[in-house]
Amino acid sequence: MALLFMDGFDCYANTAQAADGGWSPDTNCTISTSGGRFGGGALQFAATSKQWTKTFPVVLYGAVVYFGFAYKHTGIATAQMVRLVSDANVVLSSLSHDAAGSITLQPNTGASTSEVGNSLTPGSWHWIEVKVTLGTTAANGAVEVKVNGSTVINATSQDTNSTAGSGAGVIELGAGGGANPNEAYIDDVVIYDATGTTVNDFLGDTKITTHSPTADAATVDWTASAGSDFQCVDETPNAANDDTDYISSSTAGQESRFAMGNLAATPSAIHGVQVRYRAKKTDAGDRTMRALINSSATESTGNTRGLPTAYRWFYGDFFPRDPNGSVAWTDTTINALEVGVEVVS
Which backbone phi and psi does 16 adopt, to 5 degrees? Predict the structure, then answer.
């Protein structure tokens, strides 16, 4: 499976759009469209006992699941940060912190483990990575936690197993927040397992960047409501204007591809590409579509999705390797990549 989920929260204008995109938020959880680590979107928390919940493909007991996220708290509360939950709704491990920023691990059962020191400085962003070895018994699991690349907890002989369910399949994100202006924030969430070619261990500080179309590519089969195809879909994602302008097609096999905005810098590694699109159908009957990428004339398509009658964000089409040769992505191939959509039926 390798890469299981990623979200930089740049697509959502509000909590409802995030819910359409697959998240389950409690009340007092909101979307900040500009409060992210680098000025983009982020999850925002105004209460300490609230969670954003997301399912992902189940990682079985005996295997390893990793997750990473950027985190900023204000130092006013003791709060849960993240819980890893089984597919039978049993908490397998959880991380919390106190007001000073000291992290504590609580396994499914047994004693907790706290870090020595306070790795989470209030008011600053931190990159947190967690490796959970899912035990096959109540005594052979393990959890390692890194903050900004340094291990702060490394607990072995832990209970990360449950007799219910088959493995880990849910993540619950929380934060030590309070009333405005003391909210806490989470950004750039990544979940993966240990089976990938390259995404199979701690990744180090990771950033998710979001890019919009900047020009039509060679193939633009869909019909623009006005102007060029790309001009109908070039909005900043959290400002998607839905029926103000759009592209449409009802013909199976038609696709439209776009050039995308370039990377702002040259990263040391690119772990994958995810295509996201916002779409709906306009008539009775089933309609399906899928995302695609085209790299140096080599095309790869995502999963076929059924369309609802109201706009929603679709996610989950991951391309961890460049389809042109099945090689690692580079900044050059990313900047030349064409991204698009295709009518399936």
Answer: -60, -40
Query: Rounded CA gap, 268 and 120, in Å?
Result: 25
Number of C-beta neighbours around residue 158 at 10 A:
25
> Is residue 28 predicted with pLDDT exceeding 80?
no
CA 292 to chain centre: 19
Q: HSE, CB side, 13 Å, CA atoms: give it for residue 171.
A: 25
Q: Which is higher by pLDDT, 181 or 211?
A: 211
Q: Are 203 and 190 in contact (CB under 8 A)?
A: yes
Tens digit of pLDDT for each residue in 60-113?
999 999 999 999 988 877 788 999 999 999 999 999 999 899 999 999 999 999
Task: Report CA 320 to chain centroid distance, whole Å.
Answer: 14
Q: Which residues contact 19 (CB under 8 A, 6 or more apart)?
A: 25
Could you report the per-residue pLDDT of 32-71, keeping only the tens digit for each?
A: 999 999 999 999 887 777 789 999 999 999 999 999 999 9
* Closest alpha carbon to 7 in 61, 50, 34, 43: 43
Instruction: Tell me what the pLDDT averaged over the chain comes to.
Output: 93
* Alpha carbons 54 and 310: distance in angstroms, whole number: 21
> Residue 150: is its pLDDT beyond 80?
yes
Is residue 172 within 8 Å of 85, Cβ to Cβ?
A: yes
Residues 339 and 275 sit within 8 Å (Cβ to Cβ): yes
As a dihedral over the C-alpha atoms of residue 42, residue 98, residue 157, residue 147, rounded to 10 degrees, the angle is 50
CA distance 323 to 169: 28
Tell how strand 223-224 and strand 247-248 pair up: antiparallel
* Four-residue CA torsion sign, 145, 151, 152, 155: positive
Task: Please give the C-alpha separations between residue 229 and each of 32, 244, 314, 341, in angstroms, as whole numbers.
Answer: 29, 13, 19, 12
The number of CA neighbours under 13 Å toward the Cβ of 141 is: 30
CB atoms within 10 A of CB 214: 12
* Chain mean position to CA 5: 5
Token code pair at residue 203: 């990744």
